[in-house]
Amino acid sequence: MIVFLSHLINGLSLGSVYAIIALGYTMVYGIAKMLNFAHGDVIMVGGYISYILMFNLGMPWWVALLAAMLVCTLLGVLIEGFAYRPLRAAPSLAVLITAIGVSYLLQNSALLIWKSNPKSYPSIIEGSLMLIKGETASDSLSVTYISLMTVGACVIIMVGLTLFTSNTKMGKAMRACSEDKGAAQLMGINVNKTISVTFAIGSALAAVAGVLMCSSYPTLSPTTGSMPGIKAFTAAVFGGIGSIPGAFLGGLLIGLIESFAKAYVSTQLANTIVFAVLIIVLLIRPAGLLGKYVPEKV
Amino acid sequence: MKKFTKIIALVLCFALIAAFAACAKDGGSETAAPAGDETAAPAGDETAAPAADGEAFKIGLVGPLTGPAAIYGNAAKNGAQIAVDEINAKGGIQFAYQAQDDEHDAEKSVNAYNTLVDWGMQALVGPITTTPAVAVSAEAANDRIFCLTPSASSTDVIDGKDNMFQVCFTDPNQGTASADYIAENLAGKSVAVIYRNDDAYSQGIRDTFVKEAEAKGIDVVYEGTFTDATSTDFSVQLTEAQSKNAEVVFLPIYYTPASVILKQAADMDYAPTFFGVDGMDGILTVEGFDTSLAEGVMLLTPFSADDPNAKDFVDAYQAAYGEVPNQFAADAYDAVYIIYQALQNAGCTPDMAAADICEALVAQMATITVDGLTGQGMTWDESGAVSKAPMAVVIKDGAYVTP
Fold this sequence. Notes:
The structure holds two protein chains of two kinds.
Chain A: H1 2-32, H2 39-56, H3 61-84, H4 92-114, E1 119-120, E2 128-132, E3 141-144, H5 145-167, H6 169-179, H7 181-186, H8 191-216, E4 219-220, H9 226-239, H10 244-265, H11 270-284
Antiparallel strand pairs in A: 1-4, 2-3
Helix pairs in contact in A: 1-5, 1-8, 1-9, 1-10, 2-3, 2-4, 2-8, 2-9, 3-8, 5-6, 5-8, 6-8, 9-10, 10-11
Chain B: H1 2-30, E1 57-63, H2 70-90, E2 95-101, H3 106-119, E3 123-125, H4 130-143, E4 146-149, H5 155-158, E5 164-166, H6 171-185, E6 191-196, H7 200-216, E7 220-226, H8 235-243, E8 248-251, H9 255-267, E9 273-276, E10 298-301, H10 311-321, H11 327-346, H12 354-365, E11 370-372, E12 375-380, E13 386-387, E14 391-396, E15 399-401
Parallel strand pairs in B: 1-2, 1-3, 3-4, 4-5, 6-7, 6-8, 8-9, 9-10
Antiparallel strand pairs in B: 10-14, 11-12, 12-13, 14-15
């Protein structure tokens, strides 16, 4: 039982990291209707910036986090302005390829600046909360503070984003752009500015995700963001891409499935099982668990 | 339509120019003094050429100077450099030496090897890691260039190639030796294995370990795998190992994932004896890693910096690079001396072609016996595998000590 519960906690910890990345993916997709494959690499940049500030310059973690958010926000707006804005009218395939290009650009720039030697990223909060105290370590159940913090951050971000998009003026503009860019422009909404803000928010979330992810899973290298990026994208699709609660749910489920598959089926088949479940879900619910299926009007 | 024909014409023109350029390049590399930078000695700061062509043997090294296994590559590069400097200072046979980076990637390794062949390399020390070594050894077997890898330990590296030799012991030897060591010194303890199943090195050691463990009656209670893509989270594998009460966790993997395992095990209060092989070497030098987590980790290594025989080498290395050399440095140092001794015995001269030197050295390797830092009385069998005894060390206060 204890073992089952520890796997549950492992799965939730992993899932919360996927969820926090998936929130950024889904935010950008939901509004700009484009898949920002460079999202995972913005996370990596956030990880490096915070690593340098915390461990080379000795700043407290919250300063490093805020600085990383600032740098990533700027980076996100720059990427959007230079790489995606000129392609606003282009077919979505062109934007997709560009996003992959930006992803490689970021990875290789990081390789040039920080070299490919992986760094060990010490957690911003050490220690764990004892849930069940047993006689030996294998009888007790504990959860690390960083996992609790990641889940907490996910919930706060999810609620914050939902309130932001439904209640503020900018949020309304975002939803309008998501429905119909042309009509939104006719109503006097500055589409370019709205999408820039979307990218700014998405990238700031990526910085938060970077710090929390590296704290939980402590290797940092230029390719750190790519695999979790793909998994989180899967999570976003799983939960229904574009849906903010869907990203959260999808992330947690992917993390849980991965952990349980590793524990009870085979460590070798874990990824196969994750993607098999994704295929099944998409066969039954093509728009994902919480996604809305919008029929194409002809 | 007119515009289209124009574009076609333009494209054809470019193709023609490119074809001519390619011809010129091929011609250039055959002449004695090429002008293009394609064939000029690359990476000037890494060359140490005491003599002009024909007066010194050209020795190349291919290894990961950057990337996840950079600690090995740089240690080997520096260790070989010390041996080259010592030999050149003696007079007699002279070496020109150059190291190329492969980032622990098979394709980049072949490119690095080709760069060295263009430079005129007559013998290769390397590649340092297994997967690149498998790729390069196939090329070198065709090109007839003598290869002596300091540390690529899989049998795939030497299988079917008569001109490829190893300084380190092979994976079967490491897996078997680890099982023997655990059976003898950690008798009666249950063992878990966590290995990387998309890596020939890790899989190879695990296979022979499990086989020998069965023969020796070691209780292997859990086996967990991971791949390159899942090398950041081991919480599930560790929870399973812990729940099955494994007292020893055998890690036939490289130090980067091992550093994550040590951290996550500490987070969950799981403190078995971690037992690594040569891939664990380097764990103490990972940037940002809390070395107190590695206290008590055991690893199989042929080299200990405490060894009195190694004192001169350790001093020279520390003076030049400011750190205590690891086994990769010692392996590469030995590799250069093995080539030196074989060249001397065979009576080779630097003006001989690489292929002739290769045949002479291959013949020598069957009979030669070398006393090195990584083992006394090293001999080689026909396959290219070395015979010497492995030993284990334990990490205490951030240094290797013999248990």
